[in-house]
């Protein structure tokens, strides 16, 4: 669609006739934002023409930008030119259909519209009164998603629990850890130095960081090795033994983090067994389903979170795979008051009738920062503009594409699928030829470098049992069947070149 | 300006002919986003017609929304209708010209455009490689602002220091506190239980929260009372005595938080004197200039941060008064490695050549979360689209408007300006008539309630030396002289009604 303008003689200006700045003139907003919409739509139209992984060198931007801020205003057009010429080459295009690295960071039209609206209200929703709609929509929409996930009733807002949007899964695990820590310290049965945290070595590094922040002694962070024999999921028996040993030396187990869809291989920890252990020892059980949680809105994948009944907190990132622009991490807890106990402050300047009467929830007390954006808008718009069925099919399609990629890999004896495909992630590697001195580490690292340098796709890697493994995570909104096929052909081609050079 | 469309026969659809979701179709993005731009521009045009403080009752939204997410897609128009009918009544309009509460949260056209662009790239810039432009632009633009503020060279990126965008000032003080904590623990001269934090009782509650999170013992958080005699700034002599006493009992002073522009009354702590004390005792000095820092880009206000030379970290919120949409808190440190020591993790799945070669900064290691948005874009666009002179004049104008309000208050003997006007904040109160049994607390609380219930303006309050004080913070981008006048007339009118009812 093309837009035509009724050209005014003079465009709306950022300043009044007297020269005063009008940073919020509605007509200039309209004009400039329409221009930006076209810039963005054109970006998406041409997104496949850019290298997925930015190919710039460190420090590239310094050469292109001045050393100091301009004294006088510049035109939007010259800024847009600069974005095209100098910023975009330094962007790694997470929205490109050739993006298969880490896990996805979905943008969508609905999510984007929600971000626009949120940025225009630009409220800071720390308390209910600061913008009641922000708090209330968040409560309602997180109940919606909780129902899609069939979370136990205790996670709904009708009782003592409920959902709250965090920025990231890192913040979610941190607030859960703090709540668990302070619950233990409150009852006075332990000092900080005695508290022990448990998780598998496949758990996201966010937990280690959370422990550092919360002052958990590094020696009290039990990282339990997970093996290929359990597909890199946490072995409940090893956990139980580790806990017993700690208790026998006077330590206090208090926090267990289980993962549904680990970052390396999308492994799923056995929630039911872990839940029983957590319950037996009075530990807080946090479930990190940052990536894979979204898939659990499909009935056929819901079983991956069976056992969630014993969890105290559950987190998934709508900003990964659920088409809600970053950031939007959904945390549900059974007991909001545990978070509030850890994180609330009540300064005079924020006191207000609604909070004092206890009729409302003030989300400032369930998160690290005070301020917060109106993030529920974008999630609400995604759910409404697409509907649940479309969202389910969206994820099913990505999982199907990943299956297709598995078939490609299996069809080429030079390659090997390393772990069973989970959700939309494929972990695979190029087998080292017997005639070279390499266990495959260098070979696969080189292959990854070659593939990513091509600019056609961007994949990332992990190391599993010492093996350098390539990860292809399907999940970008624009990815279609042809992109999977092209990715595979590129990988094969680069592998041939690499193996050819080795056999010389 | 009006936009006309070349109407297509069928609008771009969210699904393919086969029914698969196309959540990122460029033409549908274009159409929908243009529609949203008009919705937003119209919102700004009519913003004065809405009550500034939302007048809804707790739980209002439940009646208007269904209990669960829709199975099938809904039309954008019906969602926009819902926003108009059900969301906007629950919004407290921080962008309204009648918004004078807390401190401002500026939106601007430039900031809004930056948010749009950032949401469309939707990158997650944890490491340099995840999108080099995001890291590099942030480094450059924070150098720009550091130069505007004439920060000491050590805060620039050319040495060991530099700037990093945090979500909020709460996160900024938390990461500073963690860096200071771990620096002390690293040298092994103290245990966590011995570390003491110092600040005045006017310091933002974010510091208390940071202490709770970092595991600082509540008894080791020294809240030093500030008095009207020093205009609510921290008395260096009292601080010195408090520190001496702590040292004599074996405690270790390690963190001092000074504020430039406190939340209650925009008080300014004496940085030079505090810096000397911090230096003498080897303490980390953090300066929280969340609100007032922006004004310090004007030469005539720069003296408020004189003494910053001895600080280790300095924070100001571009999202308050510097026309950059929320969130965008600018933190500068002299020694990035102190943050990295506290906050870094190095999981295999994030390893990459650029990081391993040490040529780049990975901002994940200077903040709480792993993921981060491309927030430098909006700050860069604000600086370029407006230019430094306009930004300085923008703040000068707000300060002038606040002065005007002070004159209004002074002209009415029923009222009193409580603390000297600092920046664009006026703290005032209605004197209780001698014939009533009230020290003014109830009276001013009632006045605030009446004024805010009118919907015409939104102010907030604080308590200073037991006195309930009204705060009028000028700073919304649309506020003009007439709004100040109207606000004052409304306050006078409501005071007359209130005093009249008392004398009956």
TrEMBL record, chains A, B:
One of its GO terms (cellular component) is cytoplasm. This is Tyrosine decarboxylase. Keywords: Decarboxylase, Lyase, Pyridoxal phosphate. GO terms for biological process: amino acid metabolic process; carboxylic acid metabolic process; phenol-containing compound biosynthetic process; primary amino compound biosynthetic process. InterPro entries: Aromatic_deC, PyrdxlP-dep_de-COase, PyrdxlP-dep_Trfase, PyrdxlP-dep_Trfase_major, PyrdxlP-dep_Trfase_small, Pyridoxal-P_BS. Belongs to the group II decarboxylase family. GO terms for molecular function: carboxy-lyase activity; pyridoxal phosphate binding. It comes from Colocasia esculenta (Wild taro). The modification N6-(pyridoxal phosphate)lysine is found at residue 320.
């Amino acid at each position: 669609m093309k837009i035509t303008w009724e050209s005014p003689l003079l465009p709306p200006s950022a300043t009044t006739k007297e020269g005063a700045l009008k940073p919020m003139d509605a007509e200039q907003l309209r004009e400039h934002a329409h221009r930006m919409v076209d810039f963005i739509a054109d970006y998406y139209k041409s997104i496949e023409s850019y290298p997925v992984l930015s190919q710039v060198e460190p420090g590239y931007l310094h050469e292109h930008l001045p050393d100091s801020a301009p004294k006088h205003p510049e035109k939007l057009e010259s800024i847009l030119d600069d974005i095209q010429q100098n910023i975009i080459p330094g962007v790694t295009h997470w929205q490109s259909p050739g993006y298969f690295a880490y896990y996805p960071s979905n943008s969508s039209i609905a999510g984007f519209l929600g971000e626009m609206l949120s940025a225009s209200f630009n409220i800071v929703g720390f308390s209910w009164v600061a913008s009641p709609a922000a708090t209330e929509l968040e409560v309602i929409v997180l109940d919606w998603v909780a129902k899609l996930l069939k979370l136990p009733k205790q996670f709904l807002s009708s009782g003592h629990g409920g959902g709250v949007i965090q920025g990231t899964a890192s913040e979610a695990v941190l607030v859960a850890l703090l709540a668990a820590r302070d619950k233990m310290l409150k009852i006075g049965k332990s000092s900080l130095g005695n508290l022990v945290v448990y998780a598998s070595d496949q758990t996201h590094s966010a937990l280690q960081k959370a422990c550092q922040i919360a002052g958990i002694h590094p020696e009290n962070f039990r990282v339990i090795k997970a093996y290929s024999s359990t597909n890199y999921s946490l072995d409940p028996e090893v956990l139980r033994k580790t806990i017993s040993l700690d208790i026998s030396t006077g330590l206090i187990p208090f926090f267990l983090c289980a993962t549904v869809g680990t970052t390396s291989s999308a492994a799923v920890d056995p929630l039911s067994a872990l839940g029983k252990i957590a319950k037996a020892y009075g530990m807080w059980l946090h479930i990190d389903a940052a990536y894979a949680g979204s898939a659990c809105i499909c009935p056929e994948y819901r079983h991956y979170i069976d056992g969630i009944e014993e969890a105290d907190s559950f987190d998934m990132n709508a900003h990964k795979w659920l088409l809600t622009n970053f950031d939007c991490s959904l945390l549900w807890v059974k007991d909001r008051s545990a978070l509030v106990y850890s994180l609330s402050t009540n300064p005079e300047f924020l006191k207000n009738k609604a909070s004092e009467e206890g009729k409302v929830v003030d989300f400032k007390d369930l998160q690290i920062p005070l301020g917060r954006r109106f993030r529920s808008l974008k999630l609400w718009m995604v759910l409404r503009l697409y509907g649940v069925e479309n969202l389910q099919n969206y994820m099913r399609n990505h999982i199907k594409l990943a299956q297709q990629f598995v078939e490609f890999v299996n069809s080429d004896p030079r390659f090997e699928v390393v772990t069973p495909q989970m959700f939309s992630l494929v972990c695979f590697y190029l087998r080292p030829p017997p005639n070279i001195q390499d266990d495959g580490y260098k070979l696969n690292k080189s292959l990854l470098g070659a593939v990513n340098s091509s600019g056609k796709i961007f994949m990332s890697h992990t190391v599993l049992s010492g093996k350098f493994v390539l990860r292809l995570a399907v999940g970008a909104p624009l990815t279609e069947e042809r992109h999977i096929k092209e990715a595979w052909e590129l990988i094969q081609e680069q592998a041939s070149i690499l193996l050819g050079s080795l056999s010389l």
